[in-house]
Design brief:
Oligomer: single chain
Number of domains: 1
CATH superfamily: Flavodoxin domain
CATH class: Alpha Beta
């Protein structure tokens, strides 16, 4: 990757983590990765997208969510058509000169969520990703491949250099996991039972922090970023 190393060795690697998160699960993963990168001596910009679309965004304006199943199903036509919508892009996600960009998206109806897809079709993403290594991650119930494939393809179209990807999934089978998540969105708290039925946890598995740390370490090492020990001690002792 020497051909895309644009910074003196003495400088900190600069990393952008851009994502959308309504239920805060993608945000938790992004924060864990950001924390680990800072331990490695990186300068990290976390850039959450805001879904401000007048038609679609208002469905995700607040929590708890009334009638979550209706609002989730109502996104199906737009997701099938791969529609884009209005978003607010943080300034950090609209500039370039990063050493790594990490893009995270929840999976909506088998593919990348509308806010992240909209970002990847925006000129801001071209500026951030041009000739830059990038990695991707998804949060989902089960079906993550379409999401990862879309982010990889759009990132490459923006001039990025794909490095790696991973996924984070919730516990339980597809039906029970979705049931638990809908109950969580309805009440904004975890429910251990619904109508007398024991529920799996609605969100990320308990080991997501370990997984996120291991993944971002692998990405950082592939780009020769400083190790956590070297970052803590300039002598590398």
């Amino acid at each position: 990757m020497a051909d895309i190393d644009r910074r003196p060795e003495a400088d900190k690697p600069h990393v952008l983590i851009v994502y959308y998160s309504f239920s805060r699960q993608t945000a938790h993963v992004a924060a864990t990765m950001g924390h680990r990168l800072r331990e490695r001596g990186c300068e990290v910009s976390e850039a959450p997208l805001e879904f401000t679309d007048a038609h679609y965004g208002k469905r995700f304006a607040s929590r708890p969510m009334r009638w979550p199943i209706v609002k989730i199903v109502s996104m199906l036509p737009a997701q099938i058509r791969r529609r884009c919508g209005d978003i607010t892009i943080p300034e950090a996600a609209a500039r370039g000169e990063y050493d790594l960009v990490v893009v995270g998206s929840p999976t909506w109806w088998l593919t990348t969520c509308m806010p992240v897809r909209s970002y990847l079709h925006h000129g801001a993403a071209t500026r951030a990703l041009a000739s830059t290594p990038f990695a991707t991650f998804t949060t989902s119930r089960r079906y993550y491949r379409g999401n990862l494939n879309t982010m990889r393809e759009l990132g490459i179209e923006n001039g990025g250099v794909f490095v790696d990807s991973t996924r984070f999934v919730a516990g339980g089978n597809q039906v029970m996991s979705m049931w638990s998540w809908l109950a969580f969105m309805r009440h904004d708290v975890e429910r251990s039972r619904s109508f007398g039925v024991r529920m799996p946890k609605p969100n990320l598995k308990v080991d997501y922090e370990r997984q996120a740390t291991a993944f971002i370490d692998r990405v950082a090492e592939s780009l020769s970023f400083p190790s956590p020990l070297a970052a803590a001690d300039p002598r590398g002792a």
